[in-house]
Each structure stands twice: as structure tokens, then as C-alpha cells.
Design goal:
6-stranded parallel β-sheet; Isochorismatase-like_sf; Isochorismatase-like_hydrls; hydrolase; 9 helices; alpha/beta; 6 strands
């Protein structure tokens, strides 16, 4: 029985291209080419293992009436028209295109369990373990892992499949996750663990 799901967090154009709104807000994703390459390999592995594959993306209505404090605290989101539904910014990057049998969770908060059917999908598919990758480490990725852990799901973070806007934030988040919320491993370590 397959009891594992891969959750790819926010690998959308907002974060995945230098024309994306995250970059236009003066932020960046360190080592991005490596992160993208790792996620391609990870998704391919998950498909071969027949794991449930789930993508998340952050998307708001054009008037941001659904943005809450997330948009209020980040005024440049609305100024730039970031993450708007139907925009290129809100779409999963083409190189990681989801397949028809895979899920895309549209979220309004950092935590993809809030206001979505993510938990229902996991429960209906008898998932007890989630492997998490994507961006950014210390915000939406960590929020995903914390929330999954609090719902009694085993969690694994693929450390070379994620990144933040600074090494300090990245390392601090990895330490927090590893200490309190789940296992942290490289893609190679993950392959060795699940290749049997």
C-alpha cells in the first residue's frame, strides 16, 4: 500500500523566475537552478514509486479581498499585482508541470492546510508520511511541515530541494525542522531510503 505523498511547495513563477513577483519585491531564492533540478528528479522518483504528488501555489483574487494579514503585512504584493489568479506569476513553473492525476492545491496562506482540502486528500488516500520540497524554506515550506506534523503525519524535508533568501534563514529553518518536526535529508539520502 502506498502511504507516502510528495508535496511540492510553491514552485510557481512568482518564485521560479527572476521576473516573478518575489524577485521584484527585492528577494531571491538562493541556488535556484539546483533547487529546480532537485525537484525535477524528486518528482520523477515519486511518480516512479507511485506516490501521491501534490503541488501547492499561492494565489489571490485580483482585489486581494482573500489576502488577509499576509497581504497587509506585505504591501508590495498588491502594488505589484503579485500572485493574482490567472496570472503567469501564479502558475506552476512549466518545467515541473503537474500530470492529470496529480493535485494542485491553491492556497491563500503560508500553510496549505488552511482553507483547502489538502488534509482530506491525504486522509482519503491513507497517507501517513509526507515528503516536502519547494520554496521558500523558512516560510511556506516550514509552515507545511509544522502543520503536517501537528496532524500526526511523518514528515521529511528534502534539503537540496528547498531554499530561502539567505543562508542564515535556510540553515535556521533546517535546524528547527530537524529538531522538532521531521527528518531532514538530501535527495541522495532519500533515494537510498526508499529505493528498495
Amino acid at each position: 500500500m502506498i502511504d507516502t505523498a510528495l508535496i511540492i511547495v510553491d514552485m510557481q513563477n512568482a518564485f521560479c523566475t527572476k521576473n516573478g513577483s518575489f524577485w521584484k519585491r527585492g528577494r531571491k531564492v538562493l541556488n535556484f537552478k539546483k533547487v529546480l533540478s532537485t525537484n525535477k528528479k524528486l518528482i520523477s522518483f515519486a511518480r516512479r514509486k507511485k506516490w501521491l504528488v501534490i503541488f501547492t501555489k499561492l494565489v489571490f483574487t485580483k482585489d486581494y479581498s482573500d489576502g488577509g494579514l499576509l497581504v497587509k503585512r506585505n504591501s508590495k504584493i498588491a502594488e505589484l499585482g503579485a500572485f493574482q489568479e490567472g496570472s503567469a506569476d501564479s502558475e506552476i513553473t512549466k518545467s515541473l508541470k503537474p500530470e492529470k492525476n496529480e493535485y494542485v492545491i491553491t492556497k491563500k496562506r503560508h500553510d496549505p492546510f488552511i482553507g483547502t482540502n489538502l488534509l482530506q486528500i491525504l486522509r482519503e488516500n491513507n497517507i501517513r508520511r509526507v515528503i516536502v520540497s519547494g520554496v521558500v524554506t523558512n516560510i511556506c515550506v516550514e509552515s507545511t511541515i509544522r502543520s503536517a506534523f501537528d496532524r500526526d503525519l511523518e514528515t521529511i524535508l528534502v534539503k537540496d530541494g528547498t531554499s530561502a533568501s539567505s543562508h542564515k534563514l535556510y540553515k535556521s529553518s533546517l535546524e528547527t525542522i530537524n529538531k522538532s518536526f521531521g527528518d531532514v535529508m538530501s535527495l541522495e539520502e532519500l533515494f537510498l531510503k526508499f529505493e528498495n
